Amino acid sequence: VQRGMGAYQRIDEALRLPVEPTAPPAPRDRTSTARPAGPSLPGEQPALALHDVHFSYAPGRPVLRGVSLAVPHRRYVALVGRSGAGKSTVFALVARFYEPDAGAVFFDGRPAASLTREECRRGIAVVDQNTHVIHGTLRENIAYAVPGASEADIRRVIELARLEEVVDRLPGGLSAVIGERGSTLSGGERQRVALARALLARPSLLLLDEPTSHLDAINESALTTVMKDISQECALLVIAHRLSTVQHADHIVVLQDGRTTAAGSHEELLSGSVLYRELAESQMLRPGGEPYGAAPGQSR
Ligand code: ATP
């Protein structure tokens, strides 16, 4: 009975959570229907664009104070900034957990405010720092959102997420039971399972929060290749603290105190953004990725 009561209380808490309205919410700032700014392929709107977005969790305490960025299709864009700059908040707005106070979010050139949350989220996958595996086989964990996925598709995402050695290692491979009472996976392996799961749904936009926080098993140079491979499949927006992870991104956006203050390539930002250079120096990175303490060209 005590175990049942504990479970009941957790279910009751979930049932009492407010239900999201399904209709498109009225935008708080109806004047913000301007077209998105930023790079895109000719004739193609970016998969995601934010146009001068402002947002506060509590009145009078702005967190985002003018965020503009664009993630074109099949491009790898990174969002960097100090802790507390508002990076995760940008993701929360893109996933429509919150609505901007002013400014607008666009998906494929369409204002998010004109779409239902369901419509916005249909093409988005998010892999954040809190990855979950369920008690079940590795295959069930990967195919969780696409239960009828073909063998070829599952193999494709295993390769993309660099999960082959995990499949090879676990007794039973894809049929190995993982999760609460199954084989334990490391944090990095769980994150790669979450990545494979997200990619299987063939999102048009993938949001990755801190891909290196647990991806210890993939070294950072291999991770760069992973990101490039993924961006061949969808638009990719990555939050990262470690600049070495994102220095090869197609475009890097710097977020400072809730504002996008600079954008460009790693090299452009090293010379054009004081904050970016400070972050790079604090992480001991030369423009080529070597530590500042090492001779140029010397590998880390
Ligand atoms: P980090 O790199 O440390 O993850 P971040 O750049 O992602 O930081 P956010 O998590 O977006 O920053 O937080 C930006 C600001 O908003 C911080 O001051 C944080 O305390 C505040 N904040 C974040 N989430 C909430 C919330 N749910 N309610 C109130 N304030 C929040």
Automatic annotation (TrEMBL):
Cell compartments where the protein resides: Cell membrane
Whole-protein residues included: 317 to 616 of 620
Region called Disordered, residue ranges: 19-43
Coiled-coil ranges from the UniProt annotation: none
Higher taxonomy: Bacteria, Bacillati, Actinomycetota, Actinomycetes, Kitasatosporales
Annotated ranges, domain ABC transporter: 48-282
Protein name stated in the entry: ABC transporter ATP-binding protein
Organism: Streptomyces djakartensis
